[in-house]
Every structure is written in C-alpha cells, then in structure tokens.
Amino acid sequence: MKEIMEVSTWFCNNGQYSSTYDQNSNSEKQSTTSTTYEETSSCSIDTFASPKSFKSYSCVATFNTLTPQISHLAIHNNILYAASLNEITVFDLKTYEQIDTFSHQTISSFGIVKSIAFSKTKIFTAHQDCKIRVWQLPPSSEKHQLHSTLPTLKDRIRRGISPKNYVQIRRHKQKLWIEHADTVSGLAVNEELMYSVSWDKTFKIWNMSNFTCLESVIGHVDALNAIVVSHDGVVYTASADGEIKVWQREKNKHILVATLKKHKSTVNALALNKEGSVLFSGGCDEKILVWEREEYCADYMLATWPLRGHKGAILCLIYINDVLISGSSDKNVRIWQKSSNTECGYFCSLVLEGHCKPVKSVTAAWEWDDDNNGALSVFSGSLDGEIRIWEVIVSTSH
C-alpha cells in the first residue's frame, strides 16, 4: 500500500551542488569506453528574459512506495503511472489518490519495468526480462489487464519454422530476430508503430495493430538506453557507446542518416521539442547537449552548446511547452527555459532540491487560468522509491 504525505515547501536557489554517485545504482547501461570531446561554448545559469517567468515553487506532496526505486514516470489522460520494480502504480492527478496497481507474475529482479508508452487504447511497458507487455487501458471503474506479451506466441511460432529467422546472440545460443536478447530499456510510439531499444544493441519496430515485429536494426556497438521519434518519423537512439544515431524510414526499412558524437561517455536520455527540430541529450558527462536540426547540412544536426549545472550523470529528460526538465544522479531536478540570449539559447531558472537518491525519471503537466498565468506540475521519481510533486507558479509576460 502506498502512502501519500504532505511535506513542507522547498524554496529555489541557483547555487552549485556536489554529490558522490555510485554507478552501480544507476539502472542505465554504462560503457567503459569514451570519446574525444571538444567544447566550443557553454551555457551559464544566469537569468535572461523569457516569455514565461517562474515566480516560485513548492513540493506539495510525496508518494512513498514500499519498493526501493522508481524507474519510470508517465502521464496519460490526467493519470500518473509510476513504475517501481515489476509493479506499476496508478494515481489520479486530480485527487492524488492511488486508483490501481498492476504487475506481471515474474520475479521482480528479472522483470523490472524500464519504460512506459501509450497508444490511444493500450499501455506498453518495457522490462528487464527482455519482454514488452501490452496492457488494456480500462474504463475508470475497472482494473488494468494484461493484453499480450511481445513478441507474441503466434509470431514466435510463425517465425520459428525457418532457420533463417534465428540470429546468434552468443556462443552456442540463438534467438529469433524478433526477440530482444537483453533488457528492453526504452519505448516510443509514433502513429501506428512502436519502437523498442535494448541493451542487446538493437532497436525493433512493431506494428501496433497486430503486435508483430516488422524490423530489427543493429543500432550501436554498445547498449541502447533511450529512443525518441519525431512526428515525421525520424528516429533518434542513444547508447552507452557515447553516440546518438539518427534514422529515417525508407521503403519499410530504417536507414542511418547521421551519427552525433559530442558526448564524452554514456548517453542516458533524449528529448525532442514538439516540432522535432531540436534534440536534447543527457549523459554521464554531466552535460545536456542541444542539437538543432539542419535539413540541408551534411551533419544533419549540429550541437550548439552544452547546458551546465548538474553535478552528476543526467538520467532523464522531458520537454514540454518550451520548458526542458532534467533529473540527475546529483539528486536534483533542474528546469531550463528558452533565453533571448542567442549565444546561450537556454538557461537554468529553477533547481528543485529534496530527493535523497538519484532522480531516475521526470514528467510534467501544465495548467493555465484565464489570465494566462499557470502552474507547472513536475513529478520526479528517485531510486529510494519516492515520488515528489512540485508545483511551479508561472506568469507570462506580455
């Protein structure tokens, strides 16, 4: 049973923070290799003019779970989904009441939920046991029910007949190409397709109408940690090899169009703006890189500047209504806004403090009144099993 607890207000300052970080507690796959990195410009934390002005913030509530870590948070239809070990807890954001808990019957250490994605009628969850599970979105009075497990039994039987459908995953062991061979670390949904990335170095494309696997792509030389897809179908994958790769679909196959190489080490998180023209990436080098899409440039996307401030690995990113939110192993959440300063582009306007362990996942929602003033609700989950709800008061300059 979950406990909801009111807590005192935490006030913002833009100071510097330091912390120690145990990489073994980070559930993202780490690489032992690094790449050369040259910095040309950096973003300070000074305040510049911005259309939105964050006036204050407070931590209005916490959800304390009985499990040791929050691995993923997601919002759908004003409902918060919180993944912890192999269990997903559901909260009504209007009342903050727990309305459901669902899980699969697998030993938790093997079935940890790593990612959550949504279609109009289904919930998709990625797991450490190499599976993707599909859940039926219920009416308000019913419980979540398991609909299917991917790849489906029907698809495995159909593909299993032909030897050419098997791939070598290690010595003396083969698997069907439609099956992931390691932790499924991320999911993304775009129209009728779903994408999954895995620590097995591949990403796969799934047809959401019949849940068949359409394609499997060896994406990187090390584990894949994150994936995002733009509205026009451009796919971005991030890896422990320190690279981000850009893919486009041509004739039902995804081809590599660019490789982005500016991070020092493992890339853990990606986020896109609504138009798909700006990509944000965060990794173990403690920096967030901002990439601008250049359609007619040979490099495809250019890294313009690093965003500094976190004193630990960047573990999660979300972009919502011109606001970037990041969570880190330094136990802090930072809110970044667009700046009128053309050299910097973004600045850190708020630092949300209070977590006792690394912040593994963040999500957010906006609410606006008739005077165009609003509140940004930020939800952050940490590796101690705590979810904090932050309310950021916003006023809009005219």
Describe how the helices and strands are arranged.
Elements: E1 3-5, E2 52-64, E3 72-76, E4 79-84, E5 87-92, E6 97-103, E7 113-118, E8 122-127, E9 132-136, E10 145-150, H1 153-160, E11 166-170, E12 173-176, E13 184-190, E14 193-198, E15 202-207, E16 213-218, E17 224-229, E18 235-239, E19 244-250, E20 253-260, E21 267-272, E22 278-283, E23 288-293, E24 301-307, E25 314-320, E26 323-328, E27 333-338, E28 346-352, E29 359-368, E30 374-382, E31 386-396
Antiparallel strand pairs: 1-2, 2-31, 3-4, 4-5, 5-6, 7-8, 8-9, 9-10, 11-12, 13-14, 14-15, 15-16, 17-18, 18-19, 19-20, 21-22, 22-23, 23-24, 25-26, 26-27, 27-28, 29-30, 30-31
Quick overview:
Strand 11 and strand 12 form a beta hairpin. The chain has 398 residues and is an all-beta fold.
Number of helices: 1
Class by alpha and beta content = mainly beta
Cα end-to-end separation: 46 Å
Radius of gyration: 21 Å
Q: How much helicity do the residues have? A: under 10%
- 3D shape: globular
Number of strands: 31
Low-confidence stretches: 1-27, 32-50
How confident is the prediction overall: mean pLDDT? 82
Note the quaternary state here.
Answer: single chain
Query: Biggest β-sheet, characterized?
Result: 5 strands, antiparallel
Tell me the strand order in the biggest sheet.
1-2-31-30-29
